[in-house]
Amino acid sequence: MRLDGFGLLVNDMGKMIRFYRDVLGFEIREAEDTENVYLVKDGTLFLLYGRDDFEKMTHREYEYVKGINGHFELALYVDTFEEVDKAYWEAVKKGATGIMEPTLEPWGQRTCYIADPEGNLIEIGSWNRPYEVKDL
User: Fold this and answer.
1) Is CATH 3.30.1330.60 the right assignment for the domain spanning 5-58?
2) Is 97 exposed, middle or buried (0-12, 13-18, 19+ CB in 10 A)?
3) Which pLDDT belongs to residue 70?
4) pLDDT recorded at residue 29
């Protein structure tokens, strides 16, 4: 098996589309009243599923955490430490919830955390080198 992508089960599709499109710059072309959003971000499939629609499709009910949750994080990479700071403050200015301001970690990564409108954690980090060579 290969990882194809990942999805978020969302309560307010319009709000989440606006956040990922307008705050984080994801290319989302679907209308805000859509049931599902399928897009590719940097080669990874990213999906937003409406919770009610997903429950109807699977014939099940699910429990959802309210507020900031620690179920997973979405990690975004920028090439420089300066871009971490800029991306964090721009996202907060546009409405993201600040969780942890940019910090240089002991292992050499500069990282920060924000949350989307439904409390999902998003990391913005950098090793201060281009993405293509960050893991070399």
Assistant:
1) no
2) middle
3) 87
4) 83
The class (CATH top level) of 73-133 is: alpha beta
Mean pLDDT, 10 residues at a time, over the chain (136 residues)? 91 95 90 87 90 95 92 94 98 97 97 97 97 86
SS (H, E, C) the chain: CCCCEEEEEECCHHHHHHHHHHHCCCCCCCCCCCCEEEEEECCEEEEEEEHHHHHHHHCCCCCCCCCCCCCCEEEEECCCHHHHHHHHHHHHHCCCEEEEEEEECCCCCEEEEEECCCCCEEEEEECCCCHHHCCC
